[in-house]
Amino acid sequence: MDTLNQTAERGFYKLSWLQRIGFGSGDLAQNLIYQTVCMYLLFFYTDVYGISPGAAAFMFGIVRIIDVLWDPYVGAYIDKHNPKWGKYRTYLVFVGVPLSGLAILCFWNGFSGDAYQQLWLDTTPSIPWIDPSFGGGFPWIHLGTTQVQPHFYMSASLLYAYVTYVGLSMLYTLVNVPYGALNSSLTRDTDEITILTSVRMFMANCGGLAVSAGIPLLVAVMAHAKNLPWSMAFFMGLGSLPSFIFMPLVPAIKRKVGKKGMFYIFLAIAIVGMALLYCITKFMNMNDNMVLVYIAQFIKSTGVIVATGYMWALIPEVISYGEYTTGKRISGIVNALTGIFYKAGMALGGIVPGLVLAACEYKPAAAEASTLPVDSSAWFATMTIYALTGLCLLMFCFSQCKERVVMDSKETENVRVSDLWVEFVRNRPLRIVALFFITAFAMMSVGNAAGAYYMNDLQAQSAKAQEGILWLVCVIPAILLGLAMFIISKYELSDEKIDEINKAIEARSAEAQS
């Protein structure tokens, strides 16, 4: 067997379609669970559970701060340990079980009651600084109020929300970081990684479509609603639908216009779509022009899906670059770093909607006027179905993925948490990708969380609340996309450069073994 074939066997592996689909099913599973949280948990908290937007924004910020502290330890732990069922895939099953359980519990409102649910809407606090719209029911800000029983519910329910959401986010890291590292551990072949990423994003968007369009319909069915929210489901579903058209074309588009060219084109398309959506809603009657609204949403989503979908293919590139410059292939560390920054973006995306809704004095629609049902048992049953389906998909991913490009035991002994920040400082492409992730995920989190409010009888809101929701759906995401376009212009690893790096790594490894 010649040297070239030996090199191919050692690192440049080709995968079967079953393996590719198995890998992609992991992202589909995570989308069924975590995209539901990203898209609908804020709405559930404000319109079903009864937490004020300000309190929800504060809680989302606290959760992300905890994530930033937690993620580095997860990345270092994963790189240092080698479970017998697989360095990375083991966590998909053993952490996937409690992750699914906590996802279900996040949508349970056992602490809520009618008096509590209307508290921040219908009561006037005795002094301004205990206004629930500012504090949202923390136990230490209830002194001096006369509503003892409702405030007790507020405190208990907020504590429950914090515990379940923090726990969910921490467990999600224990699944998402090793899953992200799987990509670079399956092969070094850049063409294969492009196919893997395309399959992964295609299946992730299947999950996104099932969540964005499926959740409103299933909640309505579970609530025995007379009218199903088809218009909302279609609008939200358009957020994922373009993936089925364009993601299979990504490899060909990239070959035609180049990596950066593809980012520029689709980020610009997304900005155009957002501008159209804003103008249609602002200057025309939205209900009379829903076809135009759908077209604008499709244009916006096309740009967002391709640009943010392909960014995951950059992670194996910066991992290889780090291995080339340091001799260490610390996939867990790099994916933990990526996790920190995309969660930083999600933190902005979680905090900003709540703050904007509070500032524009958003008030939930009455139950009978709400397009999206506010029946708490229907939300709980829906999340149960989605979470258990996600768990089954994680198990399938586990069965089809086998790590073949990983560190040996000598390298893992030297992995430390401090390696995370050392790698960040010396790996310039990683810093560029990290900043891109912050802006991209902030944009997606803001837009995703605002979608339910946009389609839930927007014109029934006050003019101030309508403008705030429009800023969340269109203006703020467009600003972030412009920033993302500038950031990606600084990325310097071309496909040719990556191929040279991977061949040099394999040649170095072959020389060391000879």
What is the distance, rounded to the nearest whole angstrom, between the alpha carbons of the first and last residues? 15 Å
Strand percentage, roughly? under 5%
Q: What is the C-alpha radius of gyration, as a whole number of Å? A: 23 Å
Look at the helices and sheets and give the structural class: mainly alpha
**Mean pLDDT, as a whole number?**
81
General form: globular
Order of helices and strands: HHHHHHHHHHHHHHHHHHHHHHHH
Low-confidence stretches: 1-8, 113-154
Number of strands: 0
Helix content estimate: over 70%
The helix tally amounts to: 24
Largest sheet: none
Explain briefly what this protein structure is.
By secondary structure, the chain is mainly alpha-helical. Helix content is 75%, strand content 0%.
